[in-house]
Amino acid sequence: MILTVKKDCDRNELQRLMNQLEKKGLELNFSEGANYIVLGLVGDTTALDVDWLKSFTCVKEVTRVQAPYKKANRLFHPEDSIIDVSGIKVGGHEKIVVIGGPCSVEGEQIICDIAQEVKDAGGVMLRGGAYKPRTSPYAFQGMGTEGILAMVKAREKTGLPIVSELMSADKIDEFVEHVDLIQVGARNMQNFDLLKALGKVDKPVLLKRGLANTIEEWIMAAEYIMAGGNKNVILCERGIRTFEKYTRNTLDLSVVPIIKERTHLPIIIDPSHATGDWKLVEAMSLAAIAAGADGLIIEVHSCPECAWSDGAQSLKPAKFASLIEKGRAIAQVIGREL
Amino acid sequence: MILTVKKDCDRNELQRLMNQLEKKGLELNFSEGANYIVLGLVGDTTALDVDWLKSFTCVKEVTRVQAPYKKANRLFHPEDSIIDVSGIKVGGHEKIVVIGGPCSVEGEQIICDIAQEVKDAGGVMLRGGAYKPRTSPYAFQGMGTEGILAMVKAREKTGLPIVSELMSADKIDEFVEHVDLIQVGARNMQNFDLLKALGKVDKPVLLKRGLANTIEEWIMAAEYIMAGGNKNVILCERGIRTFEKYTRNTLDLSVVPIIKERTHLPIIIDPSHATGDWKLVEAMSLAAIAAGADGLIIEVHSCPECAWSDGAQSLKPAKFASLIEKGRAIAQVIGREL
Amino acid sequence: MILTVKKDCDRNELQRLMNQLEKKGLELNFSEGANYIVLGLVGDTTALDVDWLKSFTCVKEVTRVQAPYKKANRLFHPEDSIIDVSGIKVGGHEKIVVIGGPCSVEGEQIICDIAQEVKDAGGVMLRGGAYKPRTSPYAFQGMGTEGILAMVKAREKTGLPIVSELMSADKIDEFVEHVDLIQVGARNMQNFDLLKALGKVDKPVLLKRGLANTIEEWIMAAEYIMAGGNKNVILCERGIRTFEKYTRNTLDLSVVPIIKERTHLPIIIDPSHATGDWKLVEAMSLAAIAAGADGLIIEVHSCPECAWSDGAQSLKPAKFASLIEKGRAIAQVIGREL
Amino acid sequence: MILTVKKDCDRNELQRLMNQLEKKGLELNFSEGANYIVLGLVGDTTALDVDWLKSFTCVKEVTRVQAPYKKANRLFHPEDSIIDVSGIKVGGHEKIVVIGGPCSVEGEQIICDIAQEVKDAGGVMLRGGAYKPRTSPYAFQGMGTEGILAMVKAREKTGLPIVSELMSADKIDEFVEHVDLIQVGARNMQNFDLLKALGKVDKPVLLKRGLANTIEEWIMAAEYIMAGGNKNVILCERGIRTFEKYTRNTLDLSVVPIIKERTHLPIIIDPSHATGDWKLVEAMSLAAIAAGADGLIIEVHSCPECAWSDGAQSLKPAKFASLIEKGRAIAQVIGREL
């Protein structure tokens, strides 16, 4: 870490700061320029609080050299992490995974039917929301436990591992028991109590990027889970919030090479929530594969206009199947399988 | 609500949609133009799901006429709500309230000392974080219960009601017992399980706007709490995330007249988190009062560089006192007291 | 267009508004609901000013049904436009074009050398800036006319058509004479005088999206050129400004299917400026092709660290060649050639 | 400036970089840490190109210590600049100026009438657009020269200096001859050819912040004008683009203290374009004065719904007069006059 210090500062305050940094075990590198003093801090600065440093009036600027994350950092873990979701491997040079299913679970029969269609099309996991984060308190909030059990039934019938969103730590036991991959939604990406709870279990976690979170904050959210002891984190980009109005969110595909450079974690893409429009899903899915993503999570519904939520972004099974077929060809070009 | 329908659409699908809307008790107003059909929906559309409507391929556009919130809507509650926080009235034409205190509670003695300084300066409530949402798992996470009890002690000594952030529903009993005004932080603004839990108690809630949430989503978060039965919501703007780098966030003061026009709830401003820089706090505080805000929540610390978090944005007590004095004069100009 | 009108409005004002709309040749469709009046306007509303409508106090909301663009609108021009750039066809089902070259022209010899390398790698046009929009007045501002003439020489040697940025209408003659494809940079996307000047010539224009412009504003900028009489517009996405810090801009690839749905114009992608980092260029280029883009414009320099500007985002020729090879394979998958 | 260099880099490349930096007259401060080398550059780095530095593969990060602007920098010009606009002084401790007038000039009679009303209300300058930047080519583009001459007539009648927007350098002579304060609009903030042309005249310039430009880029735009020799720059904040939909733009009032800290230039606020809604103008105007702004520029029209553009954001004269009266009282509180 590098501190830029004002030359005309209170030297006593500066000395106090330097003493405190040395007490934290950091080596200091002092060099005085024409207008500023530059203070290099050598040692582990991961836990050093930038805001605390800035509260010293002598400090003008603080520059991080080391990333603030350790467990997720590729620097200290050069090989790709491969996350095992009940037998399906995600990441590394494993097959690209495609997860399909409805936004909300709406009943046992329908989720079983969709699961079969997802499987027939080439999908390897089933998604479905039982607890739904809805902007309006008057909107359908999900079937809850009944929905989870309907998914379990669909898994029994098709063999597909199931993915569902956990909204609150008090339901974690239910999810650990029944769900194969526990999703943290965008709105809860910085629900730190939830992240801490997930750090204590060993189920794989699908961590969606928050609507307005930087890549660094997203990796730090993964770090929360990993620091707690759970190494099984898969990152999922689902679009960020911008000024653009023709799409619901702006899908940021550049995260794919960035996540792969900076972390060792798998990264998958959710084109359905990113765009909010089924007509854009195929193009964005193929782009994600070409960019090097480890997987896709796509909304599929046999009757989008019958869906209880987010029908506008759901693909019909035939469209989903043809998307997978094209994706397979693109995967081959970049040396992967799907 | 108005639906714009493609003229060359599948008329059977359109008929199906219209039947379903009529079954929901809505009256339909059909008018066919040169290129489009316009369908006006008359009745209570609050709970109608825009995405469900968009999933019909015949629907091109959906336009809300009525706001999606009811309980918070000034239309149905023309007079200002005044929230009573243990005797301090917030909103309406009541006195403008100034809340002061440190980012984190750091010990009983120091919080009591700061509380006294806040009171001497003219502050009427004490803020202090006992559970801290921190981007890094390696940063100080707050003193927890011990911190809450230290604040209780500070209240005993000074009589100031206390404000603290609740991060998880499982601590709600502790907060209801000890805290006068329960804060929901920006990162939890759409933690819907937390909002629902707060709807079931009757403590006042200070609801911060999320980093990237629209005003409408923010009001909908208030609506969650109010729909559950708790009418005591105070809104708090604390800056939104933009591309600008000279400030931590961009303080959006236009929310003040907007919130007052659309809702009957009080609105207060947090200039400390918005700017991240104590040097900007006074100017933004005076601006907030001039804009018509019902209060301010400001970080105050007797020794910002000793603070365990966010020292960079904390005011020293003397500066806080002089800010209040200036704010009082501005309040008078716009016909309020402070 | 649909106007939502307050029911308790001044009916005289409403009548005045309706009279004025009828005088503009619009047919009005009046329907009175429980809380609002809905006024449908039938006819050509392209030139109707939303802000003028909103200035009537009776008007609560204005909703566009028809897009505000005509010439660029696919609705009125269903087949793809194919733009001919000195023999290179762009758009439709034509070959995907790859444009390569340095950020700035730095001399005749070096631009000729790079042009040859671009051609050898499979590039079909040469880019190079002679007039440079630089944030700092102290930074290199481009070689000007000398740079244009150096590019002309490179074209003579290699046969590659040349692309360069025009910053001001007063240089338009120079560009029409020498340049094959005139670029409008992101910062000038809404320099309307420049757009109008380009509407009067018949050279193809490469119109970059502004840093914070919506897709609709971007299409409207194309409409300016087309309304003036020049139909030869190619759109170019180069990233938008968001809060993210790990990339210079956020590349918005969803524009590809959106532009193709709403307009008949070709769309190409600039991954170099979007990311600002050469390490991300290949992944984003392949993604762009998979998404259906009609071309790429990529910074190439034989010695990035010798470049006078933007070296950080330039590819070396060998990397550029390998990118094209992979892109070719992906193009085949989606039924295109490169 | 500080370079963070990878420890395992190619030392030859690093040596080449260091040689080039020394040739530019910079002194180098080399310090080797555990994981990184830190290279401090001492000397004038204003013109050093960050992207050029990043193009060296050994360079990991570049941190500016000195701001990239000199002429606008308060560091080198501690006293406030006071800009004289035909006798009206702007900045420093001079009176707060209020500029009023219509969005577009619509005729001689009406601009003269509005000018008189602006003056009667307490406004000291008249604004009015003769050349209009409009998103649509089909919208009214302004009266051009005729509009400028109508404003000249209004100045003759009322004595108010006039402000109007220049969109293209080829009209600069007309503006220098007739206009007292030349406005650069938000969309042209980085039209560098226009900025350069304005640097060569000595008329005061009102430089609006771009829709998505950082404060630093905005100051750099002022630096362009000042580097050319014209020191008479007044900055004007008019809202930035964010995800929020209830306002047209988000007014960023924190620029007021920031601009005053970093530059010596006056800063005025445009609440009309920022909000797009006349109902919000008064609250934001009072807030701007409380924050320390040197002036306001407000849209005023005697008949907003008759206005040819932007009527939705225009105040009627009576409302404008009452705003000025309240503003005057707030100015007194902070020790200024209006």
Automatic annotation (TrEMBL), chains A, B, C, D:
Residues 85-324 form the DAHP synthetase I/KDSA domain. Pfam families: DAHP_snth_FXD (PF18152), DAHP_synth_1 (PF00793). Its EC number is 2.5.1.54. Keywords: Transferase. One of its GO terms (biological process) is aromatic amino acid family biosynthetic process. Residues 1-66 form the DAHP synthase ferredoxin-like domain. It comes from the Bacteria. One of its GO terms (molecular function) is 3-deoxy-7-phosphoheptulonate synthase activity. PANTHER family: CARBOXYSOME FORMATION PROTEIN, PHOSPHO-2-DEHYDRO-3-DEOXYHEPTONATE ALDOLASE. This is 3-deoxy-7-phosphoheptulonate synthase. It comes from Holdemania massiliensis.
